Amino acid sequence: MPLTKEQIAKRISEEVQDGYTVNLGIGIPTLVANYIPAAKTVMLQSENGLLGMGPFPLEDKIDADLINAGKQTITTVPGASFFSSADSFAMIRGGHIDLTVLGAMEVDEEGSIANWMVPGKMVKGMGGAMDLVAGAKNVIVAMQHMDKEGNSKLRTRCTLPLTGVKCIKKIVSDLGVIDVTADGFVLREYAPDVTPEFVVKATEGKIKIAPDCKKMDI
Questions:
Q1: Whether residue 106 lies in the annotated active site
Q2: Class of domain 5-215
């Protein structure tokens, strides 16, 4: 079986280093907050104006006025601060975000990403994705490897409108951990219930299996 959304988030949490300022996108990325070890000092940023986001609240701790950019209720950590959306985007555009984790509809072998619209379908808005892929120091994508029809979402070239060009270096999908290099995708880790060969077959773009490729410990 492929990884669950929670397992994808847990694996990405291992990429979060002590002292980081991190922005988590809507969807799977928001779950990463639940898996960051308490021993690490990490400040989670939300582009609607919050630095110091905590895990999702228990039912008796919900504050309807305290939400993230995806309108989900959240908690805060000691030292959290609130500010305007303008200040929030100044943090992003100024290069003060160490890592952002985003969902994606497509990522191609050059590291370009499409994650904000499907032509012909209703679009709520761009959100902060374009700013984040341009301003964050590192971008990791959390995504399903294939769509509902079984088509690969790791493409030779993105077919949907682009969010950013050649900006993605790492993908954690439900099938494994993939680096994006100058030579295309490189499979570093594979989900416990699949094989490296299965991941290759599920990938449209050019992909190699790393010599030290290993089964994910998750």
A1: no
A2: alpha beta
